[in-house]
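Table S7 (text form). Paired inputs.
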Amino acid sequence: MNNTFDKLLAPLQLRGKTAPSRIVFAAHQTNLSTNHRFAQRHVAYYAARAAGGAGLIVLEGSVVHPSDWPYEYAIFGYDEQVVAGYQQVAAAVHAHGALVLAHLTHSGMQGTSHYSQAPLWAPSPVPEVNSRELPQEMEPAEINAVVAGFAQAAQFAMAGGLNGVEINAGQDGLIRQFLSPLTNMRGDEYGGELDNRLRFAREVIRAVRYAIGEQAIVGLRLSGDEHAPWAGIKPEDAAEIARFLTSDGQIDFISVTSGGIYTRHMTRAGLFAPPGHAAHLAAQIKTGVQALVFAQGSIVDSLMATGLLVEGQADAIEMTRALIADPDLPRKLRAGQPDDIRPCILSNQDNIIDMVQNPRLSCVNNPAAGYESDPEFATLPPVAKPRRVMVVGGGPAGLEAARVAALRGHHVTLYEQSDRLGGALRIAAQTPGRDRLALAVDWLEAQVRKQDVTIKLGVEVTPELVQAERPDAVIVAVGGVPGRYPFVQFDAAAMPILDPRQVLRGEAPEQPGQALILDQIGDPVGMGVAEWLSDRGWQVMVVTADMFVGQRLTASQELTPWNQRAAAKGIVFRPQIDVERVTGRTVYGCDHFDRTPIQFDEVDLVVAVTFEQPDEGLYLALKRAGQQVTRAGDCVAPRYMSQAILEGYRAGREI
């Protein structure tokens, strides 16, 4: 064992049971269920993390009462048929020595009536922030029904062979809504002073403990800060709540999260927040309770996790996204191979899935996540006869293709036109706060070098070069090229008109002035360029035809923090404008709806942010010449990193 990580890999005692490490895989939505029960996809998903060395696994939330159906594929923990699924997951997890808990939850006002076709239940009629749906204030009989639901769901969890349960009083739970004066405005014995607001939580904990006995583990997931100081739970409030709720010894651990109805993005923060941003909340609670305390908050680095334990700020660490990116993280630490851990880049691109498309959970950097039982990820078969494989393009798609092909036993040569591997991802990593993106290609580059892939930089691959090298197979992964901004006439411009790559390569004028970002996409590309220019002294305005600036940032929970940063930097938003013409130093357009003419004068730089096009010339030429060739990534269709890595994996696997 590497002594550096001894504390993180040490066993953890919970109610007389032993978790093999202090690494926790916490509850999160997966959309893997079938008929609202745990399915074989869950079994494979959780078993992979247990096999990799996670100490404690907390399953996807199980709702405890029919009044709560928060998303289409929610687990119905109140239905006895959930037991069979628990049994399958428990057997798979226990086979590798890990402990496993059910996560019992009720979403209250933060759910939706879309599926249940019934009113939401909540402490008070406070509208849900996103949907603006007004919930029904719970009557005493309904409160009692939910308390009984928690107890019954806990019994089903134990019947399913689990080691216990975690009760949700976190960001999205009904219990937190009772605890918080932000959402609890009742005048009866469940509202008002803190002692009354604690009543519902106490009743749930007492009922659950009574239902499952003294031998089972009972934990509590608690929001340590709602980030709403005008009315919500503040860190000092959370510490007091934790003391009260653990004083009778019924709670074995508190998992400290953050966020509330107005700050959902802080529960699973993306690139906008530093790793470990919420760890101090756990430390504050730990000083006043006898129960174990788990830290959370974008903790994806093993050294940081170990440091928190060594410093006594927590007893265990939730490393959920790190384990999604690499299920074998603990095993690799034990083996002294920390450099082989596939990094979590905290982009939130594929693991925020509560959206109308109902995607299955996955990982931008690990395409096998959520698909562990699929044949293409279950095994990576070695080749019977190694072949000479030429991979063209050193971005994420090409690097992954080279890595996988080499792992299978092929002789791989990787060509990159520039003088550095990483492709467009390295360019994107230059924008403010997005430097972690480079970790993905850093890891891929290290892995291909470890596999003795031959790397040739600064070489432009042509059909003639391919013909001269005579490879057995070619994988083209050369990326995309800038597209033309549609429906805009660019003529006689007296200022530079650049695309985002040109800006980040340093082609903008050195003397800052007025910059207009013409944004057709609304994702981190345009927003990142806007911040990059602002940080260098430019006066930046973002112009878009969309209803609001940064429209696609909602999917990764970045919209609110982007607005906060942009406001602080003086970036101006001009949504709902159709740009029509750029001439001289003036940009002409009109209101998207009433067509009122609008113009922007004295512009010094225009950045046209539009969809790229595939660079497919080499692929098509090789295909016409009869060469065995496949392609992956943006040269198929420019999209996001997750698609590039997935297609690179498939290309390397299928050669």
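Next pair, protein 2 of 2.
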Amino acid sequence: MRRAILAGLALALTTASVASAQAPTDPARLFPREAPIELPATTGLVRLALPAAVLEGSRPDLSDVRIHDERGAARPYLVESATRRGGDATIYAITPTEVSRRIERRSSLASVYREHLVLTPPPQVPEGRWTLWLDSAQASFVRDVVVFEVRDDRREQIAEATVFRMQAPLRDRLGVELPRIAEGARLEVQVSGEGGYLEPNASLIVLTVPVEPPTVALPLTEVARTRRDGRTILELARPAGLVPDRVLVTTGAANFFREVRVLDLSAGAAPREVGHGSLFRVHEIDGAEWVAIDVERAVGDRLRVEIDDGDSPELEGLAFEAIVRQPTLLFESDGAPVTLRFGGGRAQAPRYDIQRLVGTRLGDRLLGAALPEATLGEPVANPRFDDGPALRFAMRPGRTPEVAGYTDVATLLVEGATEGLSRVRLPASVLAAARDDLADVRVVDGDGAQWPYLRGADASDPIALAVEVDDGASSSETLHRLTPPVEGRLERLELHTDAPFVSRAFRLYGVDAAGERSLLASGRLTREPNDPRPLEVTWAPRRVTRLELVVEDGSDAPLEFGEARGWIPSPTLYLAAPDGSYSVLVGDLEAEPPRYEIESARELVLSVRAVDATVGEATPNPAHAPPPEPSWWEEQGLSSWIVWAVLLFAILVLGLLTWRIARQPADGEAPPPPEGPEPPSASGPPVRF
């Protein structure tokens, strides 16, 4: 009996564990495959190479790949694309043997600072690719660089480039590619630009022995073969996760020379050539063989290979492999067990902060660093995988809002949301009709029931501004009126001008619907020469009907803005709803912010692959009914009622005082007799003592 009780208890616990693991908010339920990650003994950043099984079962962009800890929480990672990188990098710091500087004055533009450096490369520099690296303590700069090789009495220009460093976002280019110079030659470097002397630190970087990226060879399955007009035509299945760089051909033929085309076959599109070349082999000559075709990126699920045989027989024993560069993941290990889950195509690409290092100098150093290697165990089916719509648990209509309270409505169309999630971006006309906090946004179906959504990360959308110039406002100032197509909350202004150099003070005002004018920003509009970026002004978001930009021109001609754009802050809404037609309601000033229970499953919802919904422009809501005019007593606030109460109390007190005064006798008049029995009359019987 005791054993039966224990067995029943164990079964109940197991059932509860499985039910918990398959909870609708469990992120692991999105991925059909998983594999344990075997970690090195050390902690910190580690590198995991993704094997063929993961690449075959995942999307090409690896958006449906996650690393989960034992609690199911995602572990951020950086995707290292397998690219051809340089081998060993040798850095030689070079101290200039000569330095000269001068300032070149210009009539109307800022001064140009010129620096001349003479550098002597170290002897016995190894073979490789040379890069002159010019660093500086300045946080931001743009400089033109010209490099000359000086040998004996000969001086020859060998390189010309622009080096720069810019902030927010951080990006830079500090290297100048050089050819290898002769032994004993010198380098003369001319650096010029505005904003002061650069005073660069010079280094020579030599990259040797380029390293080819690691690759994996994956077989391509032949699904069809025909022979027509002297050609062998084969169709090969391409798994969704494979983006081959080459197609490798295997054949038992000893001697051949064939022209080959590779075409991408995508549903609904014409075949597109992605590669062509010649395959050959001469058995009697050592090394006389080439059996691979380089291909461009393919998007279809099949590849067509056309081999021109001419009058020769078909190549015997044909087989094909896809050569794929092997990507790796960099993530932080704390020694606790983690699992790689992948596949299904149901998750959207994660937005990990560490991925932003890619393309920066710090990221290049990180990717080139020697890190401990993790390995992946054997992939197996994920027991927690749920093959139904990922948001099936959340796709339920909610309460029906009072449609009459909303002033505007816009159409919303959801198509292809197989997982139940769509991405909604509200146009400017909808944002203009909505409240600033968007608490009045509701998505309803044809029956009027609302559907839940989550508010995602904030973004900004540009809108064109009409430009009107009033150059008669002042003798030294120009007023530019910038009007958006609809009233809205603006937070940034972008101005395009052909002026090569700008340095002028400005004031920016916002005008609201009531005509009130308020200062939004002030400062200087600046642009350095050779800087193609537009002028920008930012401020705290403010709802305006137009902007008024006052530019202090002084004695210069007014600036001409060929294009002006404003930026509207707008969050992304993630709607949990099936395909269909919906409406977006906005404009209810009394609406309470919505509260949906999917907020508790935010991490899972935002990890699901979403499709873009189509939102129309806002139009007046035909069902809108303005609230009835309040009665006079409903219009009175608390302060008004207090005043009325005080006045009423004062009236009562005054009335009481008036009544009491009215009862008192006038001067010289006998007071009225007191109430009670009348005293005896004077003619009555005498009183005896």
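The helical segments are 2-21, 52-57, 361-367, 428-433, 602-607, 632-635, 638-663.
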